[in-house]
Description:
Radius of gyration: 12 Å
Shape: globular
CATH class: Alpha Beta
Number of domains: 1
Oligomer: single chain
Number of strands: 4
Low-confidence stretches: none
Number of helices: 2
CATH topology: Translation Initiation Factor IF3
Strand content: 25-35%
Strand order of the largest sheet: 1-2-4-3
Mean pLDDT: 95
Distance between the termini: 21 Å
Amino acid sequence: MPERYDLRAMQYGPDPMMFFEDTFNRISAELNPGQEATVVVNPEKMNEPVAQIANLAEASGLSVIMVRETASDEAVIEVKKRAA
Length: 84
């Protein structure tokens, strides 16, 4: 079962891109290679499209498996840690 990170209630600050860059770095550090995680975010708190936020995961050593918006205030980003 993938790790789950529910970030909907968090404040993303004035620069959501930086917030998610830091968040994906932390998630990558917590996962083992091959391990998957589900990251739930609130698109209404971001200035950028969810797909653009998901692209930040790639720079953190994570592969994006899927991005889907499930409601106006909820989107799911599924990632998997790449092998070292």
